[in-house]
Specification:
The complex is a heterodimer of chains A (267) and B (346).
Chain A: E1 7-16, E2 19-29, E3 34-39, H1 45-52, E4 60-65, E5 68-69, H2 75-79, E6 82-85, H3 97-102, H4 117-129, H5 145-158, E7 163-167, H6 175-192, E8 195-199, H7 203-209, E9 212-217, E10 220-225, H8 227-230, H9 233-240, E11 244-248, E12 255-259
Parallel strand pairs in A: 3-8, 3-9, 6-7, 7-8
Antiparallel strand pairs in A: 1-2, 1-4, 4-5, 9-10, 11-12
Helix pairs in contact in A: 4-5
Chain B: H1 2-13, H2 20-40, H3 48-56, H4 63-96, H5 108-123, H6 128-151, H7 159-181, H8 185-196, H9 204-231, H10 235-240, H11 245-267, H12 273-285, H13 289-314, H14 322-340
The chains are: A alpha/beta (267), B mainly alpha (346).
């Protein structure tokens, strides 16, 4: 499986309230791959993701999907191709897992169609894929942070989009759950060929799970490519201002960044 | 095989709230009880025979039968007001994403009141047909104003900005209302009865004026329910699901304004119905607006009609206006809710 959508940004400037954060970025999202945007705090990685997700309007430049600007699409049509999981979604009081996941079907339903068989199947499949079927009737409040994040991803899966954007899907989770979420996203990418773009904080997990990396510094794209091609101590120095040694990850053979501070350095 | 059919069935049930059928049946029974008691009870308690005569035998001209006939229009009017206020409450809560919102929170009630007062003092307006337009204009201008202020700055119309703008506007408009009526004894008299809120003045004419507004408001509410469900997950999630939050909010607020403005014009400001109805229903069926909107309409009708009956009974042979009663029941419940509710979006 796979999709052939071309998804790109050209000469993109964007930000909040006249403060431009993204300073002229050109990028093309690799099809059927997992891309990760990395960079220091405040470098604009979330802003970039939100801009290509249509959550922020660019001040200049275009985000285009299959050659057409994303704001030219009817919103529901776009929502059937491009799914977004923002950083802090709101949980309505007393909502059950199944209800929340089901709300991901909104772009597939019309005014009078109601719930079709396809909708139920998509919801079941998404819950099954994220291993949350057993929680279907529980209140979201009864779940742990990791389970809750799986519910949100299931909602985005129920949307059945070819492209999925996630803003820091592993933040605030224990390491166990971070790995679990990234594994699930990888199997999603393998099973359906979903193009995934996400912002991650952890550079080592990024290097391991990403097929492709976009490295940002002060709103500009300073490097892009396969992790093993671009992650070097020079790159880490320039975007994080951190001295480090890059070795090979013994588990995955991907680059592993070992930071070097002022203390605990053997002589 | 058996287990897959079982799990299929379980999944299908998931999208109907738990015990929904049971709750619907109970609500309908309560509705019928409220209607029957509204027809039978009051300063003059009628018998079952008189009720039947009044309802079905137009040739029966006993005193009791006539009392029942008079109470029919009052009951229908109170049902309409309850439905309108119940739905206006759900819509306002959905739009502001705040479980404590009520039309009065956005200043909509006060805006309607101000314009009615201006009409009474400056233009000597006294009929319901004229009140309703003034109230709607007042409610709309207030909503646009509050929405405008609330949308300024970063992030558009966020729930908290809307609430702050609504509270500030409401306070300013209330003082204007007071300033206008204080110098005029005539306006004070006219205003006094209208201001407490009563369905006793309801007759077939006011129902006829009310109906078109009620239908428009109901239609918008039902059509926007699935999109409002998406909005409940936050503006960003809603946008990514294909909703335009700004346009959706505008439509839902228009429906809320029309429903609440029309009810306010005809019955006077009746507070807390939206809050009570929505909370009672959210407590038993959960937050899915496709069910919450119609069920809150039902609950609003039941609560308002029962309150009206209670008002007639405790002050018999006179009556206590329903607006006073709902405030008495509603205010403590609002405080309880505010204390225990985690107002998460704030």
């Amino acid at each position: 499986m796979g999709n052939t959508h071309s998804f790109r940004a050209d000469k993109l400037f964007s930000g909040y309230d006249n403060k431009t954060i993204i300073q002229g970025i050109d990028l093309e999202i690799p099809k059927n791959k997992i891309s990760v945007i990395i960079g220091a705090n405040g470098c604009g990685k979330s802003t970039l993701l939100k801009t290509i997700a249509k959550l922020i309007k660019p001040s200049e430049g275009d985000v285009t999907l299959d050659g057409k600007a994303i704001n030219k699409y009817p919103p529901k049509q776009l929502a059937r191709i491009l799914g977004v999981l923002p950083q802090s979604p709101v949980v309505p009081e007393g909502i059950t897992v199944a209800d929340l996941v089901g709300r991901g079907r909104f772009p597939h339903q019309s005014l009078f169609s109601g719930w079709s068989k396809k909708d139920y199947e998509a919801v079941e499949e998404a819950m099954d894929f994220m291993n949350i079927t057993e929680f279907a009737n529980l209140d979201i409040d009864e779940l742990s942070g990791g389970q809750r994040q799986r519910v949100w991803i299931a909602m985005a899966l129920a949307q059945q989009t070819d492209i999925l954007l996630l803003d820091e899907p592993t933040t605030f989770l224990d390491i166990t759950y971070q790995v679990e979420i990234l594994d699930l996203l990888t199997s999603l990418n393998e099973k359906y060929g979903t193009t995934i773009v996400m912002v991650l904080h952890d550079i080592n997990l990024s290097a391991r799970y990403a097929d492709y990396i976009f490295a940002l510094h002060k709103g500009e794209l300073v490097a892009e490519g396969k992790p093993s091609d671009i992650i070097t101590s020079d790159l880490v120095k320039s975007i994080f201002d951190l001295n480090c040694v890059v070795i090979q990850d013994p588990i995955s053979d991907t680059p592993l960044v070992i930071p070097k501070g002022r203390y605990h350095v053997k002589s | 095989m058996n287990s897959t059919t079982d799990s299929k069935k379980k999944q299908l049930d998931l999208h109907l709230p738990k015990h929904f059928t049971l709750i619907l049946v109970i609500a309908i029974i309560l509705l019928i009880v409220s209607i029957v008691s509204s027809l039978m009870l009051g300063a003059r308690v009628v018998s079952y025979q008189e009720l039947m005569d009044g309802l079905f035998y137009t040739n029966q001209d006993s005193y009791g039968a006539n009392v029942v006939r008079k109470r029919i229009s009052r009951t229908v009017f109170s049902l309409c007001c309850g439905v309108a206020l119940g739905i206006a409450g759900v819509l306002m809560q959905a739009v502001t994403r705040n479980p404590l919102a009520d039309p009065s929170i956005l200043g909509v009630n006060t805006g309607a009141t101000l314009f009615v007062v201006i009409g009474i003092t400056l233009f000597n307006i006294t009929t319901a047909g004229e009140y309703i337009w003034l109230a709607l204009i007042g409610a709309s201008i207030t909503a646009v104003f509050v929405f405008g202020i609330g949308s300024m700055g970063r992030g558009g119309a966020t729930p908290i900005k809307l609430l702050l703008a609504g509270a500030a506007t409401s306070a300013a408009l209330s003082s204007l209302v007071t300033a206008i009526i204080i110098p005029s004894a005539y306006a004070q008299d006219q205003f006094r009865f209208w201001q407490v809120g009563s369905v006793g003045s309801g007759n077939w004419d006011s129902i006829k004026i009310f109906l078109p507004f009620l239908i428009v408001g109901l239609l918008i509410a039902f059509i926007s329910a699935p999109a409002l469900n998406a909005l409940a997950l936050g503006d960003d999630v809603a946008t990514s699901l294909g909703v335009r939050p700004g346009i959706l909010r505008a439509f839902a607020i228009i429906a809320g304004v029309v429903l609440c403005g029309a009810a306010t014009a005809l019955a006077g400001p009746i507070g807390f119905i939206g809050l009570l109805a929505t909370h009672a229903m959210r407590f038993v069926i959960g937050p899915d607006l496709r069910f919450l909107i119609p069920m809150s309409a039902l609950a609003g009708a039941i609560i308002l009609t029962f309150s009206d009956v209670v008002g007639r009974l405790i002050a018999s042979p006179g009556e206590l206006e329903v607006g006073i009663l709902t405030a008495f029941i509603g205010a403590p419940i609002l405080i309880i809710l505010a204390k225990k509710s985690k107002v998460r979006s704030l």
